[in-house]
Amino acid sequence: MAKYKSYPEYKDSGVEWLREIPEHWKFSQVKYGYSITLGKMLQKEKNSYFDSFEPYLKAQNIQVSGLDLHTVDSMWFSREEKKKLLLEYNDILVSEGGDVGRSALWLGQMNQCYIQNAINRVRPQKNNSATFFQYWITFLKSTDFINIICNKATIAHYTVEKLASSPLLLPKKNEQQQIADFLDHEIAKIDTLIEKQQQLIELLKEKRQAVISHAVTKGLNPDVPMKASGVEWLGEIPEHWTISRFKFCTNRVVVGIAEAATHAYAENGIPIIRATNIKEDGLKTYELLFLKEKFANQNESKYLFSNDIVTVRTGYPGISAVVPNELNRSHCFTNLISTPLPDYNSQYLTEYLNSAMGKDFFALQGWGSAQRNISVPILQNFPISYPNKFEQNQITNFVKIKRSEYSLLIEKAEKSIRLMQERRTALISAAVTGKIDVRHWRAPNEHSQTIAESEAVV
After folding, report:
1. Distance between CA 100 and CA 96 in Å, rounded?
2. Is the pLDDT of residue 134 over 90?
3. Helix (H) and strand (E) counts for the chain?
4. 208: which residues sit within 8 A by CB, 6+ positions away?
5. What's the rounded Cα separation, in Å, for the pair 440 and 428?
6. Which of 3, 115, 188, 282 has the greatest number of beta carbons closer than 10 A?
7. Which of 273, 358, 370, 359 is nearest to 324 (CA)?
8. What distances in angstroms separate CA 171 from CA 32, 54, 93, 108, 436, one per listed residue?
C-alpha cells in the first residue's frame, strides 16, 4: 500500500484489532447506521386467502462472487410479510447461517424478491452508503471477529443481535462513497486479472489433456503410418499398434470392498483408498482411512498391490491412478481394481483411461441419474490400442514430463491468483479502516489510461 498516503491525524479506536483510526471518523455499531431485518421461516402451505406465492433468497444464494440466482425457490408470504421483507435496491444481504457473514448487494436483479430466515437484510439509514457497508462487512468477514462471536465450532448463527452490535467505522457520507468508488474501481481491476488467470488455468488444463491424450492414443511420432481402427472410439491409430479391450491387458478387474466398513475403521492399520484419493496425476495419500487388519484379511481377494490400477466407480467414473509401492497391500472402498499383465505398463494404461477418449467413453457408458456409475464389465470392455511395452514406456516418460511442465505453469497461475486475492483483501481492509487516505482519489480517464497502457506496451 506504499503508493497511498495515510491520513494526517489518527486517534485510538479503543479496539485492539482495529488500532488507530482517522481522527474525524466515528467508531460505532452497525445498528446506529443501518437497520437489520431477518427473513421468515419457510412456509410451504397457504395460511390465508391473501397469502401469495413469492420468490425468496436463502443463504446458498449468497456466494463470494455475488448473488447466484440460478436457483430461486418460492414460498407463501402474507401481505404484512411482503411489506416487511421486500428487497429494495442497495439492500445488503448478510448470511445468518451457513457460511456466516458472507454478503452481497441487492441491485434489483429481479422485479421483486424476499428473504428466508437464513439471511439478514441490512438497509442504510441516515444517508449511509450501502456499498461502503458491503466492503466493511467483507472486511469483518476476513478477520476472526465474526467467527469468534458466532462460535463456528458449533452451528454458527450471525443473528440480528450479533450483527447489530458488530463494530462499524463511519466516515462522513461523501467520504464513505469516495472509499466505495475507489474500491469498486481497484477491486474490478484485480478481479479482471484474477479472471484472466483463471481462464489461463482452464486453457492450460485443456492443453495438457489434449497433449497427453494424443500421446497415449496416437503415439509420439507424427510421421508414423496410420490405419483405421474399425472402432468408433479409437479412430485412426498407428499402423503397428494392437487393437484390443482393457480386459485382455489385465488378469483381474474386480470391485473393492463394497460392504459397510465403518465398524472396522482404526487409527492405524491397513490403508483404504476412497474415490476422493484418486486423481489423474496420481493417488493422494492425505486423509487416508485405515482398517483393522483382521477385517482387511477377511477381504484378502480385494487387496491392491503395487502397480495395480484403481478406478473411480461412482461420481467421476473412469478416473484412474496407479497404486504406489507405499500402498502395497492396501484396500479400496467400492472402486474398481485392475491388475495389468506383465507386457503392459500400468501408467500407460492409466493415462489411456484418463484420456479425453476415456472420459467420453465412461460418460456415455455410465449409468445412473444423480451420479454416474460404471461396472466391472464396462471397464473390462473399454476399447484400447497400444504399442509394445518399450514404446509404452517412452510414451509414459513423455507424459510424465509434460504433466510436470503444465503443472508448474498451472501452479504459477494459481499462486498469482492467491497473491491477487491477498492484495484484494488487504486493499479493502486498508480503505475501510482508514489506513490509507483516498479522499483525493479520482478514477483515471479510461481513454487516457488505454493510451498510456498502449504506449507502455510499445
Report:
1. 5
2. yes
3. 11, 29
4. 402, 403, 406, 410
5. 17
6. 115
7. 273
8. 13, 38, 22, 27, 13
The residue to which cell 492425505 is assigned = 286
Picking from 342, 368, 338, the residue whose alpha carbon sits closest to that of residue 353 is 338
Give SS3 for 291: strand
- Give the Cα separation of 457 and 90 in Å (integer): 39
Mean pLDDT of 433-446: 90
Residue among 139, 83, 128, 86 nearest 110 (CA): 86
- Are the C-beta atoms of 333 and 313 separated by less than 8 Å? no
Which amino acid, residue 184?
Answer: D
DSSP letter, residue 163: H
What distance in Å separates the CA atoms of residue 296 and residue 292, rounded to the nearest whole number? Answer: 6
Choose among 298, 305, 373: nearest CA to 334: 373
Q: Which three cell numbers stand for residue 369?
A: 441419474
**pLDDT tens column, 154-179:** 778 999 999 999 999 999 999 999 99
Q: In 3D, which of 266, 262, 227 has the Cα closest to residue 243?
A: 227
C-alpha cell at 380: 473390462
Q: Is the pLDDT of residue 45 over 60?
A: yes
DSSP state of 120: E
**Which three three-digit cell numbers place residue 171?**
466516515
Residue type present at position 454: S
CA–CA dist 246, 358 (Å, integer): 11
pLDDT band for 451, please (50, 70, 90 cuts). Answer: very low
pTM of this prediction?
0.84
Q: What is d(CA 367, CA 78) in angstroms, rounded to the nearest whole number? A: 45
Q: How far is Cα 190 from Cα 339, in angstroms, rounded to an integer?
A: 49
Q: Which residues of 15-45 are buried (b: 16+ CB within 10 A; e: fewer)?
A: eeebeebbeebeeeebbebbebebbbeebee
For residue 407, the Cα-to-chain-centroid distance in whole angstroms is 18
Strands (E), 176-273: 226-228, 236-238, 242-245, 250-255, 265-266, 270-273
